[in-house]
Amino acid sequence: MRKKIVAANWKMNKTLQEGKTLVNAIISGNSNVDVTKIIFPPSLFVTEFASSIKENAGFFVGAQNCYHTESGAFTGEISASAIASCGATHIIIGHSERRQYFHETAEQLKQKVNLALKHKLVAVYCVGEKLNERQTNHYFTAVKNQLQEVIFHLSESEIKNIVIAYEPVWAIGTGLTASPEQAQEMHAFIRLAAAEKYGISIANQISILYGGSCNAKNAKELFACADVDGGLIGGASLVAEEFLQITNSF
Ligand code: PEP
């Protein structure tokens, strides 16, 4: 059976103290042990949270990004190996904000995925079309390209360490959510693309998360879709009660 996952992408929010308060509230309010919960705080907090969170069943900590080379003179950047050595188990790669604001290319993202897997991190790889690609009916092509360029070179055993997050760019942080029909259509398309490449049995093991203004009000109908295995949550993950309600929406 595929894992049900709810992941919290805090982005560049929270101080250490605020983050600790939020994490404690999430852990103490957690009632759904069947759902994997991954917290992606600012990287500076990974070490601190890895030790406290990992004692709790079903909780994991990850980083929001890494650099695309192994090590070296890249002031200010963080390597996949450093992230793994701090106790992180997961990493977000290819978030649309990284693609848009930091101009990350498909080639760099591919290198990041390779490094993440080399250092035994599960990569949460984000795909999603821009508004104009949705409006001009190019959304399937856009997402298929993102899969082919960055993760479809992986072997059958490697692809099992990838979680895919479908995050339509027009829905991230905008309050606009994909309808359950739009989400299911794209998730089924992604699973079919994975099945064509790796076979149906492997494709059925890949968790595909929805992200983009997912919140406590709309999570239930999104998670009810056959190919939606949970969510990557931005804004709504910054409030414990809201995040917990989302984890209880399966
Ligand atoms: C995200 O950044 O991955 C995200 C889904 O953000 P939001 O939930 O705020 O749209």
Can you summarize this structure?
This protein has 250 residues and is an alpha/beta fold. It has helices spanning 16-29, 46-53, 80-85, 96-101, 106-118, 131-135, 139-150, 156-159, 180-198, 200-203, 219-223, 240-247, and strands spanning 5-9, 36-40, 59-63, 90-93, 122-127, 162-166, 208-211, 230-233.
Percent of sequence in beta strands:
15-25%
Count of runs of 4 or more consecutive helical residues: 12
What is the CATH superfamily label?
Answer: Aldolase class I
Major β-sheet strand ordering: 1-2-3-4-5-6-7-8
Reported CATH architecture: Alpha-Beta Barrel
Taken in chain order, the helices and strands follow as EHEHEHEHHEHHHEHHEHEH
Explained architecture:
This protein is an alpha/beta fold. It has one domain (5-247): TIM Barrel (Alpha-Beta Barrel). The protein is built from twelve helices and eight strands. It has an eight-stranded parallel β-barrel with strand order 1-2-3-4-5-6-7-8, surrounded by five helices. The radius of gyration is 17 Å and the shape is globular. The structure holds phosphoenolpyruvate. Phosphoenolpyruvate binds at residues 9, 167, 172-173, 211-214, 232-236.
SSE topology sketch:
Blueprint: E1 5-9, H1 16-29, E2 36-40, H2 46-53, E3 59-63, H3 80-85, E4 90-93, H4 96-101, H5 106-118, E5 122-127, H6 131-135, H7 139-150, H8 156-159, E6 162-166, H9 180-198, H10 200-203, E7 208-211, H11 219-223, E8 230-233, H12 240-247
Parallel strand pairs: 1-2, 1-8, 2-3, 3-4, 4-5, 5-6, 6-7, 7-8
Helix pairs in contact: 1-12, 7-9
Bound molecules: phosphoenolpyruvate.
Phosphoenolpyruvate is lined by residues 9, 167, 172-173, 211-214, 232-236.
